[in-house]
Design brief:
Blueprint lengths: L2 H31 L11 H18 L1 H10 L8 H7 L11 H12 L7 E4 L5 E2 L3 E8 L4 E7 L3 H22 L7 H14 L2 H14 L6 E2 L12 E5 L4 E2 L3 H6 L4 H19 L1 E3 L7 E3 L5 E3 L5 E3 L4 H14 L2 H10 L3 E2 L5 H12 L12 H13 L2 E3 L2 H19 L6 H7 L4
Parallel strand pairs: 5-10
Antiparallel strand pairs: 1-3, 2-3, 3-4, 4-6, 7-9, 8-11, 9-10, 12-13
């Protein structure tokens, strides 16, 4: 990366950090200077809006790590205010593609030969663009249609520079703020996830691992990897096409029953999370499709997660205890999943569970983690913070909340416990 680019990115992060600090501290200083009443959460709502807009603007100009940071923030409703969650969700869809000459040079650098030596066709316009890479349709000389995922040039240097800048900024913030928001763990979490996502060899192995899980299930399609032409920065995969999972009218027009699609979707994620302990942890509509003959397609294994041993059993125990109102089992399950109370008072977990259950459609937990329930969980945690909300639980909760939204859009319910009993029965 050019030194001027490094300085510019460092300057942008520094400016953003100073702006955000002053944005939040100025109302506090005014309140103390003028001896006004203590500020309420409502007083900070416009501040949250301005902060989220500033972060989004910086992210769209810098791309790369800043986009990933925004996406990470948008999944941590247990830490950040709703304005951040809603505004920064836009980063999932707001990434413009890189110019074709840059992409072509990157592909040829990884192949070590001209594009024409490997591909008989290669579309210059990408079919998808994300924060670290973009995907192009192509055809091999043997006639096979493939999707080529190309990592952006210099992305590793950009990632390293941005992460260093963020970590420095967070450490300065924690030094000067007496009661800082716990941002450093989020940066470390992001560092780990980005390490996964910029290693396309790992993504290929993860995809093949999930493909093997469902090798005997004709209703699930995980694209194969063309290992001969794939590298750490270039991923050549079997081309798959289907109907976007949220396009209910197209699904019905294909003669498919949306209820069957919901069941297959839930069965796949229950199998990955509860049975196998390894799952695709970055679900969104662009990564899930269904073919006209009813096969479920799962894409993009850049962020795949190995769950701790016993996690699936702990999650099942939590769900079953919430359904039966067995508070002793609830406490045990929370502890097994890695939750820790700031004060050591176990009642915190029972209050959280009760609040979650109260937000279910029927006032009782029936096996579905709805978005309302997970929002209530994170609201309760913000109000009565716990020392450690395990990242694994946040990721899994996000997945099931997302699946619940899809299921409702298809006219069904994302019942985890029901999917456990029905998995593979059709």
């Amino acid at each position: 990366m050019h030194p001027i680019t490094r300085v510019r990115r460092t300057g942008t992060v520094t400016w953003l950090g100073v702006y955000l600090y002053l944005l939040y501290k100025t109302p506090v200083w005014k309140q103390k200077l003028l001896r006004r009443p203590e500020l309420s959460d409502e007083d900070f709502l416009p501040v949250h809006d301005r902060a989220a807009n500033a972060i989004l603007k910086a992210a769209l100009s810098m791309r790369g790590v800043m986009i990933k940071m925004c996406q990470a923030i948008a999944t941590r409703a247990d830490v950040f205010p709703p304005a951040f969650i809603e505004r920064l969700k836009e980063c999932h869809d707001a990434v413009p593609p890189k110019p074709w000459p840059e992409v072509k040079a990157a592909v040829e650098r990884e192949l070590g030969k001209p594009i024409g030596a490997v591909f008989s066709e290669f579309a210059e316009t990408p079919i998808a663009a994300a924060s670290l890479a973009q995907v192009h349709a192509a055809r091999l000389h043997n006639g096979e249609q493939v999707a080529v995922k190309v990592q952006y040039p210099d992305i590793e240097d950009i990632v390293a520079t941005d992460l260093r800048n963020m970590e420095r900024g967070v450490r300065v913030y924690e030094r000067f703020e007496p009661q800082p928001l716990a941002l450093l763990p989020l940066v470390k979490e992001l560092t780990t996830h980005l390490g996964f996502e910029i290693d396309f060899r790992r993504e290929a192995v993860s995809g093949m691992r999930v493909r093997e899980m469902f090798a005997d299930n004709p209703r699930v399609w995980i694209p194969d990897v063309v290992t001969e032409f794939s590298t750490g920065r270039l991923l050549v995969m079997e081309m798959v096409e289907g109907i976007k999972i949220t396009e209910v009218d197209e699904i019905k027009a294909a003669g498919l029953d949306p209820a069957d699609v919901v069941q297959d979707l839930m069965s796949v994620y229950v199998q990955m999370i509860l049975a196998q302990g390894f799952f695709q942890a970055d679900p969104h509509p662009g990564n899930l499709m269904v073919t006209p003959d009813g096969r479920l397609i799962v894409l993009d294994f850049g962020l795949s997660k190995e769950l701790p041993e016993g996690f699936g059993l702990g999650l099942f125990e939590l769900m079953f205890s919430m359904m039966t109102f067995n508070e002793g089992s609830m406490l045990r399950a929370f502890k097994e999943l890695g939750f820790q109370s700031k004060t050591g008072n176990d009642e915190t977990f029972l209050l959280i569970a009760r609040r979650m259950i109260s937000r279910s459609d029927t006032g009782a937990f029936e096996g579905e983690f709805t978005e309302e329930m997970t929002d209530e969980l994170f609201d309760a945690i913000r109000e009565d913070p716990v020392v450690d909300v395990p990242t694994d639980f946040v990721l899994v909760g996000r997945v099931f909340s997302f699946l619940s939204g899809i299921a409702h859009s298809l006219g069904g319910r994302a019942n985890v416990l029901q999917a456990m009993g029905a998995g593979g029965s059709r």
